[in-house]
Amino acid sequence: MVCAVILLLNFGYQTMEMPFCILKGSSVHDVGDSALHFTFYQRIEICKLRQGEHLILGFSIGGGIDQDPGQNPFSEDKSDKGIYVTRVTPGGPAEVAGLMMGDKVMQVNGWDMTMVTHDQARKRLTKKNEDIVRLLVTRKSLEQAVRHSMM
Amino acid sequence: MAGMNNSKNQRDSNIQKKIDHEIRMRDGACKLLAACSQREQALEASKSLLTCNTRIMAYMSELQRMKEAQVMQRVALRSSDAGPTDDRLPCKGKVAISDLRIPLMWKDTEYFKNKGELHRCAVFCLLQVGAEIHDTDMVIVDRTLTDICFDNTIVFSEASPGFELRVELYSCCSEEDYSTGNTPRKLASKLSSSLGRSAGKKLRVAMDPGACSPISNGGGATLLLPLPTVVGPKYHLLAHTTLSLSHVQDSFRTHDLSISGNEECSHWVPLYGSVCCRLAAQPHCMTQQMMSGCLKVKQFGGDPQSWTNVYGVLKGTNLFCYHRQEDVEANIQPAFTISINKKTRIRASEKDLHNKAQSICISNHYGGEEVTHTLSADSREDTHRWMEAFWQQFYDMSQWKQCCDDLMKIELPSPRKPTLVTSKQGSLYHEMVIDTSDDISTVTDILARRMQELELRSQLGTSPPWMSLFEDSPGCPRTHNRLPHSPLRCPRPGLLSSEASLTSDSDSPCSTSPCSRHSGWAEPLSLSSHSSHFRPRTLSLDAKLSTLRGRGCGGVLQCSCQPPSSSSLAPIPAQRVPQATLSCSNSTSSNSSSEGSHSPELSDGTPFSHPSSARQSLRNLRAKLDPRNWLQSQV
Lengths: 151, 635
Description:
Strand content of chain B: 15-25%
Number of strands of chain B: 19
Number of helices of chain A: 3
CATH architecture of chain A: Roll
Oligomer: heterodimer
Strand order of the largest sheet of chain B: 15-14-13-12-18-17-16
Shape of chain A: globular
Shape of chain B: elongated
Domain REM-1 (chain B): 1-72
Largest interface: A-B, 83 and 91 residues
Region (Disordered) (chain B): 471-515, 580-635
Strand content of chain A: 35-45%
Structural class of chain A: alpha+beta
Order of helices and strands of chain A: EEEEEEEHEEHEH
Radius of gyration of chain B: 35 Å
Protein name (chain B): Rhotekin a
CATH class of chain A: Mainly Beta
GO biological process, one term (chain B): septin ring organization
Organism (chain B): Oncorhynchus mykiss (Rainbow trout)
Number of strands of chain A: 10
Radius of gyration of chain A: 17 Å
Distance between the termini of chain B: 56 Å
CATH superfamily of chain A: PDZ domain
């Protein structure tokens, strides 16, 4: 089974796209992608659900640059001050879209979430005029899956 | 099989090293771009950046192609197909492009009048064959020029006859002001945020469901290189063309250019529409010895006793026959030479009565007459090898076509001097751009950087001088961890005194800005306790931009700089938001009784949107305020 992955390189003001094929199930020599400075991301699109007066997404976040990163149970690196998904409401919009507990949120609708306070992060997710949020998340299992397929 | 794997590993690690190198160069170029204030420097740095980016893309494509090829090979081997066909491959060769000249076509009135402001553009060319990319020097173009001339000679050493040389002309208007110091606050924040949005938009566009197959859910995975945003002069593609073997000639030729852009663009330069250059090629079969060995030669039909022992060397369009092998190195003239060109006919003849092995007959036409030489090797295997060499030579000549008629001359480019970043040693203060609202540490950073630059200037080698500045030593941790401290930096020196009561709660192994040290800026160059050697703090401008952006995001950061307004926790009015997490929980003092109860109004800008829940217990809220808890919010 071939799964096609789009390689999107953001070079500051130059963004280039390049299809990057990864073949699952066959052993391909691994060049040691640490040298290439990749991180594997997944795009998740969540449609907010209206509950009374509120638009909810159905998950909880933890983390932020104003928080103590040592208490984050999901991060690998205990100095990581990023925003992590701590809980996903069963049956909620986030679960339907494929968000999983432990995901690290890198971007929301293009806004960076790696260097934000907890409150800033919450605000970016709960903008009233947005019905859909497009998250860019990374999770350890995804990274492992792709790396494994490259082994 | 193991040998094949080893060579593959070798190739992979070669590309990996190249990518590493380019990423480091790229980092250096970004930092230089952010730090420099002079237009020329900025244009050069931006050119380096574009070249690095293009090279990284090319290497990644190469890597991908190699991986695909590997997998295809494995698949082919696994299936019961016949083994790989023994295809004959043509030899590689050197391809050189030089004397590039691009004529311009200014409007008559513009050129002759020559009044008014001169519209100047910086241009350069990128030349690419496969994954090998070279750039020419940068040239400033204005109305007084009739042609853009690039003096560089660029040689691609291992090109196949089917090569495609892509020539791209990039241009950039050289009149805007690029220094980040002058960038107004709003613009800086707008740039940072708008770049974020455009990247996000590109993400959305790229992830069309049709473009990729989904894996487990939703869209496919995206690979993203998180790299800092760059402010500075930007080059745009102005024209391009692709040259190949058919364009190769031992003289100047004119080729058509495809032009992108129009008069409205800032980077527009009126091109005539063609490019002149000299494109030459030297296939290896013309420059290298393809086969050599001992032979016996005689003219066809001659006396059986008239065999001559020679040492034959097949090179280019000739088989040189030397008396002895030593003559080759000694540069002594060969005894005679037999032509091997596209008109030559070679065949293996029947066994000579006097010889055991087959002989080879080579026929040529010399001035109307057909002359045939007969060659005989020592053994059957040697004969076979010679035949194989001749076949390969013919094949190479058929592939390289006009390049094998005569050897084309390629002048090797003289070693280029590395371009100095600053040619004059100006006063430090003239080169610094300081905004009044700037952090004082920005100034010290510039000073520190400049000092290092001057120190390391003597280390000019093959890499640009600024490379050594930004080279990470292996033991040094990446500096991303330092960025979080920037938003907490005090923007105004005057508020230092009020921060005496504020302590940073976060566990910070990295050094902090002078603001959070009560001693002020006594040690501007102090660095992280991790690194034992001096390391320039080059991220201050990145941090600055994120600071500016943070300010633009609702003034949350201003909270941290206000002294705690009350010494005891004021009773929370009923309207307080129960779920809203309070920002700046770091700014609690060690006395637990005093806590800055920052009103969410400041951060929201509007009264609370969520309905009040006066039933929220005070204990719960205190728990939320306690920085020892790790806050979680439901969205």
